[in-house]
Structures are given as structure tokens and as C-alpha cells.
Amino acid sequence: MRKVWVVIRREFVERIRTRWFWVMALLGPLFFAAVFVLPTVLASRGGVRQIVVVDATTGPVGARITHLLNDSPMFRAQRVPASGEVVDSLTTEVEQKRLGGFLIVTDAAADSGKAEYRGSNVSGFATVGALERTIGEVVSAVRLEREGVDPRVVARARIPVRLETKKIAGGKTTGETAAQSFSLAYFMGIILYTAILLYGINVMSSVLEEKTTRIVEVLVSSLRPFQLMLGKVLGVGAVSIFQFLIWGVSARLLFTHRPAFLTGRDVGEADQIFQVPHVSGATAAVFITYFLGGFFLYSAMFAAVGAISSSEQEARQAQQPISWLLVLSFVSMFGMLNDPGSAFAITLSLIPFSSPIAMPVRWAAGNLPVSELALSLAILLAAIGGVTWVAARIYRVGILMTGKRPNLKDLVRWIRTA
Amino acid sequence: MASPSPSPSPSPSPTPILILDRVSKRFAGHTAVDELSLSVSPGVIYGLLGPNGAGKTTTIRMIMDILEPDGGAVRVFGEPGGGRAHSERIGYLPEERGLYRKMRVLDVLVFLGEMKGVDRRQSRQRAETWLERLGLAQWKRRRVDELSKGMQQKVQFISTMLHDPDLLVLDEPFSGLDPVNAQVMKDTVLDLRSRGKTILFSTHIMEQAEKLCEQLCIIARGRKLVDGALSDIKRTHGGHHLVIGFDGSLGGAAQVFADKGLVSKVDNYGQYAELELASGADPQQILQRLVTSGARLSKFELQEASLNKIFIDLVGPDAARAEVRPDA
Fold it and tell me: Which residues in chain A are contacts of B92 at CB distance < 8 A?
């Protein structure tokens, strides 16, 4: 066992010494920053849009919309009376990026709730949403007043509604919002997929290096092939956990110091769009457990692929079926997020090749019975046992083979006789 | 070397350090090693000889526990089973060599030392001593792939000897070495031998084996052709050639030469003759017959055949040439 430890230490030390590791360690937080901070920054930047209200109304609607828009921190609005030339010149202004866009308000706004917005960024849904809300408020107020309602009553009735969605988990209402659950599930899926694939391929190239340099012969004369494979997988696994630790700490720092990145921005507004998830201890445990499970399962297969290949090129080809298994699990995550309780989602979270991604995603997205979690884990563990057994037999023969890559028939013979 | 070693015993103890007992290994469709038996006495240099593809590497891999025999038994240091259980006492240099290319020289050596059961601190100490000794001290912090091929070979020797093993198993140790490193290798082997270590090495170059080996085993197509002490093998397989010089009188020599029971072939020059002995013939008997026949002899020499000749005689000229190696 001491020798397994020596192998683990070599894998760990040599890997964290590489530039690759530290590039990943730095890119990870940058990735987090991009994902969590950018939407906030972009959304809040949309908030100071210069817009012009082209007023074609005969009543006070245009003026009231302009007034209300100026009340919002997102807009600076200016009202101009409508004419053909105004629209043309404003279009030029928008094209030259001097103006965010312009709103054309006619009497139809008050009658049927229709208005028109022309801008460089019509898809910015924060902008569009804010505009719609503002126009809607003015229109409903105007129409109520037309019906003879006292404007003061209308003003008092104007209470903005915010729907708070909360997740129920374990019979208790948590503080987690639906948006938070979604983004958490989404990111766990991405990270699990990327990490299992990356570190699995790390195991493969490590096996391949020892095989092509023939150092494996010296090693296998000192410890059993299985011990060598075990040490390798554990060593690379330790590196991945260390990488997560770095990411976790830096992500935490980014979240807590977020205001520093967003001085003067309306964080609350942006958080409506993309919520920063709260990661509970149980969620972290599920994540780590399934990551390790998936990593062991896949890296055993990747180790076998490394052992049957004689060159990087061959290995890249041979690992494709395994990568596809992972890609499939990853892609089906999007279907699962829509309905984490569907038969499709449940099936995927039980199949050991997809459960390492599917189960944490379901866990984060919605309430999950513990019995299902236990069953999925049990199946995953059994599969790790079985796959490792097969992989170890292929590994044992493969690391000493040179020349042509074995076909399926050869592999079956190796497994049976090794 | 860092630790003291036992002084060589004058007479090697009779208990062999390594025994193969009818060991076989089959690969898909062919038998690489076929019921091979041999035994290596402690403190000797033992040669495993054979043409390419004879099964030398497969045999060594079975000794090292890298391959499991399909039949027969291996005993190392008197215990059943291959060398893995004794890896701290065995140094192994595989035929095809390589190191972790991206690792630093010293780190590779420390790692390989630890794999052989030497603790980390001691492993580092010994590695430094060896690097110093082979003139690589200033390279210890460099990456392996920054070293020349010759230097990498030296690093690999060091990794084989770092744990001061009692038994060295070297597969084709001289192949691919530059002349300087071949010298280093030879000196190291002789030095280890003088300190009582046992060395088993394989080669297909007979000149080398003839100079270094005390015991040997010649195999071809996975089967043993002969084994034992070099001197015995030379005596039993090399003593077929007799050179005789006459001093005037030939006496009844012609009749002696004509005796098919003694001589299988004769090349008679009158005052000088070269004989090939019939199998089982005793040169001593020929000498006696010649003397009693009245011939006056100026020379009677039993010529020792080179190991190369014995090898070719045993293996046959076809098999002695390179063969395909399906297992390698």
C-alpha cells in the first residue's frame, strides 16, 4: 500500500506542477466571473439607456411615460413630438450609437396597449421588460382615470408586484428561489461534465505515457498492475478535488466581493435575471459524491483505453465512445431541467453512466426522495466495481502490448484469461 | 554505494538464487517459452542467450512477475513466486527503456527508488551520490527530456541500482548503448559481481556473453538447448576440434584417423592435421593410439570453440538469424 501512496503522490505533485493546472485554476474563477458577473454588468449597463419618446398622442400619455421612465434608474428619456423627419433622424442617431432607441407612442397605446420600440438592442429583455412595465402602468392609470377613478386612488393602487418563488425541500420551505435552483443545477451539470471528461482524459494520457516510455515494466515489477492503476486514478482524483477547492474558494471570494465589481450598479435588478445560487452542505456533498463516482467510473474506462493504445492519436480515437457517453448525459441535462421529476430524468439518474451528471442536476433543480438517491448511488457503486474489474484486466494485458490495437475479440479474451 | 555489501563468498552457496522449473508461456497461437528450466547460483554473472525471438524477454518478464507463466514455477530467493514480492532486492532494466520525460531527473530517481522500497530521504541521498559518480550532478534539476540519450541511459542504470539490489536482471543491457555507456555498464556489472551480487542478463551477442558470463543458458524458439557453467559447456560442446602436428614420423596415424568411432572428419596436410572428433570420442584415447602407433607428435591441441560457434552449432544457422518477434 505504501507503493500505491508513492504513485498517488507522484501523480499529484507532477500534475499540480504543470502550467496546465494553474491555467485551469485561474481560468475557473474567470469563468465563474464571466458567468455570474457579466450578466449583472451587462444588464445594469442597459439601465442607463438614452431613449427618446416620440409622442404622437393627443393626450397626456406620452408625457406621463417619459416622466415615469425618467423615474427609473435604467433610462434617461426625452420627449419629442412626432413627425416623419424625427423618426428618420432618430434612426440615424441609433445607427450611430448615440441613442439606445426610441419609443413611438400613439393614441393606440391607451386604447389597445400597443406601442413601438426601435432600438439597437431590441433583444435586451431587461430593457424591453422595463419598457413594457412602464407603459403598462401609465396606460392602466390613464384608462382607470378615463373611467372616472380618482387619480389619487390610482396612484395608491400602483403597487409593484414581485413574485417570490421558493423551493420546498425536505418538507420545509427554503430560501432558495426557482431561478437559483435552475442556475445551480445548470452549473453543476457543466462542471461535472467538464471535470469528469478532463480528469478522465488525464488518467488516460498518464497511462499512455507510462506505456509508451516503457517505464510501466519497471513499475509493474514492483507493484501489481491494479495497484498502479488505482494509484493513478486516486492521484488524478486528488488533483481534481484540489482544483475544485481552489475554484470554490475563489468563487466564494468573487460572490462576496461582487459589489466591488459593480460599483454604482443596480445589483438587485440584475439578480432578477441570473441568481447567485446558495450551495448547501447537502448539495455540496451530493455534488462531490457523484463527481467522485463519475470520475472513478469513467477514469477506469479511460485507463483501459490508454492501455490498449500505442499513441496519442490512437488513444484519441479509441476514447471517443466513452466521451460520447458523457456528452449524451450532458446534453440530456437540458431536457431534465424542464421537468426534473419526469420518467426520462429518473431513468437517467439511475443509469450509472449518466447518473453522475443527472442526479446532482435533479437534486439541485428539485425535491428528490432520499430512496431514489440511495438507489442511484448503489447502482453507481456496483457499476464502478464491475467496470473497474473489467478495465483492470484490460489494463494489465494492454500496458505490455505493442503493435496493433486489439479488436473487441482480443479484449474479450484478455478479460476472460487475464 | 551507500550501504555496505557482503563480501563475495569464495565458493557460491549451492542454493540457487533463482530457479525456473518447466516454465511455459503461450500467447495467442504460439508458445513463447516452452518448459524452460534453469537455475542461477548466487554471486555469478548468468547469461540468458538466444537469437532474437527466442523467448528471452518473455522469460525475464516471468521472472519479474510482469507476466504470469501458463505452466511451471518460478522461485526467487528460495521462495515460490516471481520477483515482485522481492522487488526491493531486485534491480530490473527492461529491454526497451524510458523515463518520465517531463519529470526532473532527481525526482524520477527518488520516485523509482521509493517504488523499490527505499525511503524518500535515503532514495534522494543515493540518487545524488550516483548522479555525482556518473557526472550528472549538474543535471539533477533538469527535466529528463532535456538530457541527451546517453545521459538518459545513465539515469536509467542508476534507477536500476539505486536500492542496492542483490539480484540484477538486465534485458539486453548493452543494446543501444554508446561505447562510453557500454563501458560504464560493463564496469558496473563487474563491480557488482565483485561485491557478491548476482547478475542475470540476456543478450544475443555471444562475444559479450563469452567475456562476462560464468553460467549461461542458451535458448531458441522458447526451448532450452544447453545450460550450465561456461567452462563446462565449452568442454562438452566445444572440444570437438583437434589440431595435430607431426615431427617427421607419422607412424600409424592414418589408421587412427580412419577410425570412424573416433574421428568424424579429417583434414590431413601430411605434417599437420585438423580433426573433428566423432561424438562421444575421447581425445585422450586418440592421443594414446597415436603414441602407440609410433607417430612423433610436435603438437596436440584440443581447440576451444568460440561461444559463437557453439551457439550457431546448437541453434542452427537459420535460427541464429533474427526472427520475427510476435510477443514483443
Answer: 217-218, 221
The number of angstroms, rounded, from the C-alpha of A144 to the middle of its chain's C-alpha atoms is: 45
Across the interface, do B100 and A215 touch by the CB < 8 Å criterion? yes
CATH of the domain at B193: 3.40.50.300
Number of domains making up chain A? 2
Candidates B74, B114, B116: best to mutate against A (most CBs of A within 10 A) is B114
Q: Residue B63's Cα: distance from chain center in Å?
A: 15
Residue B110 and residue B88 share a domain: yes
B256 and B148, same domain (yes or no) = no
Q: Where does A309-342 have alpha helices with state H? A: 312-318, 320-338
Kindly report the pTM of this predicted structure. Answer: 0.74
Residue of B nearest to A10 (CA): B111
Residue B81 and residue B222 in one domain? yes
How would DSSP label each residue in A47-83?
A: GGEEEEEEE--SSSHHHHHHHHHHHSTTEEEEEEE--
Does A10 sit within 8 Å of B84, measured CB to CB? no
Task: Confirm whether B325 is domain-assigned.
Answer: no
Give residue-wise pLDDT tens across range A31-59.
Answer: 766 766 665 565 555 556 788 888 888 87
Query: Are residues B76 and B173 located together in one domain of the fold?
Result: yes
My answer on whether B93 and B34 are in the same domain is: yes
Full residue range of the structural domain in which residue B34 is found: 18-234
What are the pLDDT digits (tens) for B132-179?
988 899 999 999 999 998 889 889 989 999 999 999 999 998 888 888
Same domain, B119 and B176: yes
- B70, B237 Cβ separation under 8 angstroms: no
Select the residue of B98, B111, B159 nearest A214 (Cβ to Cβ): B98
CA distance B219 to B231: 18
Number of domains present in the structure of chain B:
2
If one compares A132 and B118, the residue with the highest pLDDT of the two is B118
User: Does residue B122 sit in the same domain as residue B43?
Assistant: yes
Cβ of B97 and A222 within 8 Å?
no
Does B84 reach chain A within 8 Å, measured CB to CB?
yes
Contact A79, A112 (CB under 8 A): no
Hey, is the C-beta of B66 within 8 angstroms of any chain A C-beta? yes
DSSP, collapsed to helix, strand or coil, labels residue B30 as: strand
Examine the domain organization and report whether B67 and B126 are in the same domain.
yes
